[in-house]
Every structure is written in C-alpha cells, then in structure tokens.
C-alpha cells in the first residue's frame, strides 16, 4: 500500500479577478500552489502530481521546483483528476489523497488524519460543520430556512482507496468533488473534522484573509524589519 497525492491546480482565477491560474496567484510573495505543497510536505507520499492548465506547464514547474510531477489538466476538475490519477499508476490497494491548490492552510496533521480514516474505511474527506443560518432563496426573496443540523461543508483533502477512485472516475460524471463520485457508487464516505482555516481561496476577500493570516504568523523580528 502506498500513499499518493494529487493537487488539483488547473482552475483559473476569474472569481479572484485574475486572468491566470488561481494556483499561480501570488500570496505573500509566493505562488499559492507553493504554499499548498509546503503545507503537506511532512506527509510521506510515494508519488505526487499537480494537475495544471494546458500551456502553463513551465510556469508551474518553476513554482513547484521539483516537489511534484506536472500533469496537464482537462476542461473540468474531474477530467484533470482523471489524468493525474492515470499518471500515478496506482495499485488497487493504494490510497490517493486529492487536495485543492487553493487551500494552503491545511495542516500535515489534518492530512494524516484524513489518510488514516480512509485507510480504515476506504473513503474519507475533510469537513467542517456549517455554522451560518442557511436560507433558500428565489431571486432576492427568502423562500425558507434550511435546518443546518447534520450539514457539513466538504473540503479537501479527500482520500480514497485507489480501486474505488478508479471506478468512480470511470463513470465519467462531472460532480462537484470526488466524494460525490464515490458516493454515487453506493460507498459510504467518512468525514474528519478539520479547522475552518482550511478555507478555499476563491474571491479577493479570501485572498485578503489569507494574506492577513500569513502576516499574523510571521515572527515578530520579520514584521519589524518589514516596517
């Protein structure tokens, strides 16, 4: 059994207001994908792949610096993950960890927890409880309030036994995440509670929060030199 890593980095940053891949957007002076790979660097993966947009391979190679192999992604997330998965040549008993490049604050400990849960059950994902009151709307009008009991926001990492993931990807569906593909097989997916700091950077406001979080973690001496 081996642990394998796929970083989904083929999305563009249009909701960030950028005409470039989101994973190459600069966060505190470094590409987002670089922070994300650093976040899981202490987890031992036998092989790692980053799925990137076509035509941007050289820029990603410079950003990654040899820490993972590059795979040209497809038109959708599912297509990109399929290509990365195929390149890993996984054995059925291996476990594949899929992580969004836009979630740079996941911790190695959280990643290991999701891996270990999947190794017990076959499939596991990172998730956080929904804390906001949810409203169903029609246009600009509230139709109803949705009870949030039992609702969780799915995140990444998401980890699956390779034979399950292969079957799910072979179905050719285009769901929101890999967990939905695996669920469609009738497989139960376990959840692992993780910090809300593992949020996905999607909007300019998210990027501002990420910058502030990084600044808050800087050593005091470095902050003083930056003044």
CATH class: Alpha Beta
Largest sheet: 7 strands, mixed
Structural class: alpha/beta
Widest beta sheet: strand line-up: 5-4-1-6-10-7-11
Instruction: Determine the N-to-C terminus distance.
Output: 50 Å
Tell how many strands the DSSP assignment holds: 11
Strand fraction equals 25-35%
Number of helices: 8
H-E order = EEEHEHEHEHEEEEHHEHH
CATH H level, superfamily name: Spore Coat Polysaccharide Biosynthesis Protein SpsA, Chain A
Please give a quick description of this structure.
With 227 residues, the protein is α/β, with parallel strands linked by helices. It is built from 8 helices and 11 strands.
Overview of this structure, please?
With 227 residues, the protein is α/β, with parallel strands linked by helices. The chain has a single domain, classed as Spore Coat Polysaccharide Biosynthesis Protein SpsA, Chain A (Alpha-Beta Complex), CATH 3.90.550.10. The protein contains 8 helices and 11 strands. The chain has a 7-stranded mixed sheet, with helices on both faces. A hairpin with a 2-residue loop joins strand 2 and strand 3. The longest helix has 14 residues. The chain is globular, with a radius of gyration of 18 Å. The termini are far apart.
Provide keyphrases for this structure.
Spore Coat Polysaccharide Biosynthesis Protein SpsA, Chain A; 7-stranded mixed beta sheet; globular; alpha/beta; 227 residues
């Amino acid at each position: 059994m081996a642990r394998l890593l796929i970083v989904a980095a083929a999305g563009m940053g249009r909701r960030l207001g950028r005409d470039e891949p989101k994973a190459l957007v600069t966060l505190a002076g470094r590409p987002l994908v670089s922070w994300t790979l650093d976040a899981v660097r202490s987890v031992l993966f036998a092989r790692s792949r980053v799925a990137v947009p076509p035509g941007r391979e050289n820029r990603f190679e410079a950003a990654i610096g040899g820490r993972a192999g590059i795979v040209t992604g497809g038109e959708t997330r599912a297509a990109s993950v399929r290509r990365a998965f195929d390149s890993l040549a996984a054995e059925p008993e291996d476990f594949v960890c899929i992580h969004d490049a836009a979630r740079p604050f996941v911790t190695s400990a959280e990643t290991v927890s999701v891996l270990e849960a999947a190794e017990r059950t076959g499939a596991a994902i990172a998730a956080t409880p929904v804390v906001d009151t949810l409203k169903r709307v029609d246009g600009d009008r509230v139709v109803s309030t949705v009870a949030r009991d039992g609702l969780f926001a799915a995140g990444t990492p998401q980890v699956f036994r390779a034979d399950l993931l292969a079957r799910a990807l072979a179905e050719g569906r285009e769901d929101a995440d890999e967990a939905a593909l695996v669920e469609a097989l009738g497989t139960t997916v376990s959840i692992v509670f993780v910090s809300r700091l593992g949020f996905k950077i999607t909007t300019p406001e998210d990027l501002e929060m990420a910058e502030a979080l990084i600044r808050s973690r800087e050593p005091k001496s470095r902050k003083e030199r930056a003044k």
